[in-house]
Amino acid sequence: MEPELPFITPEFKGIGGSIKNELSHFVVEELPLYEPSGQGEHLYLHLRREGLTTRDLQKRLADLFGLHEAQVGYAGLKDKQAVVTQTFSVQVFGLGEQEAAGKVQAELGLELLSAKRHGNKLRKGHLLGNRFRVLVSDAAPDAENTARAVAKALGERGLPNYFGAQRFGIQGDNALRGRQILTGRGPRQRWL
After folding, report:
1. pTM, whole model, 2 decimals?
2. What is residue 160's predicted lDDT score, i.e. its pLDDT?
3. What value, to the nearest 5°, has the Cα angle with vertex 148 and ends 142 and 150?
4. Which residue is catalytic, options 63, 79, 142, 173?
5. Which of 46, 99, 132, 172 has the largest count of CB atoms under 10 Å?
6. What secondary structure letter does DSSP report for 2?
7. How far is CA 140 from CA 51, 83, 135, 144, 190, in A?
8. How confident is the model at residue 81 (pLDDT cuts 50, 70, 90)?
């Protein structure tokens, strides 16, 4: 169970509602740290996906191009239950950008926004940030006014940097599990 964290705006009631009722209600757009140069052995594939994890797509791209998973790079993990715009790099030789793009679209059924070569593999952290668009469904009748008042108060007071299950795990044991991996007593899965 997630611990109760203090509210920075306790004088306001919540707006109610729910999120992620449909994949299109939660949109994540990855913002690149740099644009691919157009030259190099790595092909940057800028894709739009739904209902897949970053790991799922890494595996599918590796299989599609006959690569080891380690040859498929990405800048960060993204939500599964969302519409996600994300870039992957694949280390492919002798395959043109258009040919690779056609292969991704035809065989994986994904929307390919661009395919362009670059000199290095895309790695974790090679991104400026993420942009989110979240639709709150079934909010309270006065939700817009409440949300504006809360936003104003947060602008004046600041926003705490709380992390919950997403960072610490559902059981709150991610730090312990990480220590076990680092000391050789945990799972040997590269992904973890």
Report:
1. 0.76
2. 74
3. 100
4. 79
5. 46
6. P
7. 28, 25, 14, 9, 45
8. very high
CA–CA gap between residue 107 and residue 65 (Å, rounded): 11
Q: 168, 162 in Cβ contact below 8 A?
A: no
Structure tokens at 66: 């006959």
Tell me the two tokens of residue 133. Answer: 């668009």
Distance CA 83, CA 9 (A): 30
Token digits for 144? 């817009």
- 45-62 burial: b if 16+ Cβ within 10 Å, else e: bbbebeebebeebbebbb
CA-CA-CA-CA dihedral for 57, 61, 63, 64, to nearest 10: 130
d(CA 118, CA 38): 6
The letter for the amino acid at 141 is P
Give catalytic status of residue 79 as yes or no. Answer: yes
Query: Over the stretch 54-74, which tens digit does the pLDDT of each residue have?
Result: 999 999 999 999 999 999 999
